[in-house]
């Protein structure tokens, strides 16, 4: 581990007060007291010439949602809602109504994109 990497890790662990003090003492940054931690970190690293290398975050793979799939889901939810109405289960009917509403909103959002 080189000295640059060690300093970068130390900067990430510092509090906002410590970062502000460091920025005023060791760099010529202006407006340090109005900056947030992320802004301070990037400004200090830029001023000192430390490269920010962000490791790619591993995200869970999302399944692709299609309008056709959402329409099928809405049809099934409507059938389930009718069954719940016949069974006079108001809680389930209300839950299914909200799911149908959310699915329709997702369909509209996908079609606009």
Describe the model:
This protein has 113 residues and is mainly α. Helix content is 68%, strand content 0%. It contains 5 helices and no strands.
Largest sheet: none
> What is the global morphology?
elongated
Number of helices: 5
Query: What is the residue-mean pLDDT, rounded to a whole number?
Result: 83
Percentage of helical residues?
55-70%
Strand content: under 5%
Separation of termini? Answer: 45 Å
Order of helices and strands: HHHHH
Strand segment tally: 0
The stretches of 5 or more residues where confidence is low (pLDDT under 50) are 1-6
Structural class: mainly alpha
| Whole-number tally of structural domains | 2
Which radius of gyration do the C-alpha atoms yield? 26 Å
What is this entry, summarized?
This protein has helices at 3-13, 16-26, 37-48, 67-86, 90-112. With 113 residues, the protein is mainly α.
Question: What's the SSE blueprint?
Answer:
Blueprint: H1 3-13, H2 16-26, H3 37-48, H4 67-86, H5 90-112
List keywords for this structure.
113 residues, mainly alpha, 2 domains
